[in-house]
Amino acid sequence: MWHRTDLISTLVIAALAFVTRFVGLTVPTASGTPIFDEKHYVPQAWDIAKAGIELNPGYGLVVHPPLAKEIISWGEMLFGYTPLGWRVMSALFGVGTVVMIMSLARRLSASWQVASFAGIIAVFDGVLLVTSKFGMLDIFLTFFIVVAAWALVRDHQQVHNRLHNAWKAGTLGDSVFGPRMGFRWWRFAAGVALGLALGVKWSGLYYIAFFGLASVFADLWLRRRFSIKRYITGTLLRDVPAALASIVALPVALYLWSWRNWFASETSVYRHAVADGTVSADSSFNILPDTLASFFYYHASVLEFHASLTTSGGHSHPWDSKPVEWLVAGRPILYFSNTDLECLNGATCRQMIYLFGTPIIWWLLIPVLLWSLWCVLLRKDRRFLPPLIGFAAGFLPWLAAYDRQMYFFYAAPLIPFVIVALALTLGQLAGRGRQVRWLIPARAPWGTIAAYGYLGAVIAMFVYFSPILYGYTIPESWYNSLMWLPNWR
């Protein structure tokens, strides 16, 4: 149940998230213009703000769905084509992501303390911070994915309670397939979130596949747990069709909805690809009506673009990183650089902003995942399953496409699930061990001291690395002291 302490802790941590994300939000620019990949998405969002559609005046292929750019455009409608305008929605969704991470941890642990652990770690993670401070796509994808995971956990718990109450009351019914579950609004909500994630980036497909399978297997487990005789057939007949509707068909429908302005406009990218001869006469797309043929040709072109960005094909980028490097935040990305500045009585200074994972969080990623597996497999602690599934959905598919050019911001949707697993682990640790008698102002077990000591270390390390997260002007010597590893440069 939700208590007053839940409300207070959530409000306090949400306020911290708001402050950390809005401080210096408008400062880093390239002479007042967008920086890094903002240069792609911010002008496209401005087109949407003005005309309702990405005008694409440079006639380059627009390679991501329109939803996130439409959300960015809401801020530009309010504050104009300014840094605040193109970043305010990212910052707000960044705050929302922190709150949803807390909500997921709270739902899994039934503990406001564990939720607070997750919220504090999320506030002071560098990746979640920096993705929230620029007009790019990944914070929107991350938000919708965490919402989907939270909604599916709520759905599973609700269905479990329904079956448990029916079992206690003797009303499970006589069917060998078990009872029908009724309409499942939380699973429907998860489908909405997954559809919105897909409308931000195609990598939302990975989560549709993993979360959909997880939902079905969770239903299978529940039917078996409550001694349904034909639980496999019952799941196939009574759960799978509804799951396909909510977690596959609904997201696809919402994805198509996100393209509504493309269909409505006469000047959209490839809108008349058939009529103007862009689609060859012998293409299989020609069996479709012209509009649909042009739509699918557009998608085929985007798919070809992404498939061609391979290392073996000669594509390279100075900040390219592979999934194995994400596991230790081994290769950050430079978002902003202003060097050879004069400061401090003639000393050489610089301003740098990296997409940089707070090391004390990211360097525990592998140990925490291994501990989560241990808890699930040997301790039968199913609370760790959703974080493991969420992480796997965002990590394993990239291993299959290992040759593709990749960047650290692809890992942004991974870290919320690592944070939840970390918070659950701290919750296990807190309260354990012998009392420390000399502790002032009150005694506490060693486990509690370790848990709160870790949170303090997270905050301290965030502050230590804040110059390269916010772009403070610092001397070269200070900057060099922050570059612990050669691969960070």
Automatic annotation (TrEMBL):
Primary location group: membrane
Domain Protein O-mannosyl-transferase C-terminal four TM: residue ranges: 292-488
E.C. number(s) listed in UniProt: 2.4.1.-
Involved pathway(s): Protein modification; protein glycosylation
Superkingdom of this protein's organism: Bacteria
Signal sequence, renumbered to the chain: none
InterPro entries per UniProt: ArnT-like_N, PMT-like, PMT_4TMC
GO MF entry, a single one: dolichyl-phosphate-mannose-protein mannosyltransferase activity
Membrane-crossing segments per the record: 84-105, 112-130, 136-153, 185-200, 242-259, 360-377, 384-401, 407-430, 451-474
Residue ranges of domain ArnT-like N-terminal in the record: 85-256
Family, per entry: Belongs to the glycosyltransferase 39 family.
Record-given protein name: Polyprenol-phosphate-mannose--protein mannosyltransferase
Lineage start: Bacteria, Bacillati, Actinomycetota, Actinomycetes, Mycobacteriales
Recorded name of the encoding gene: pmt
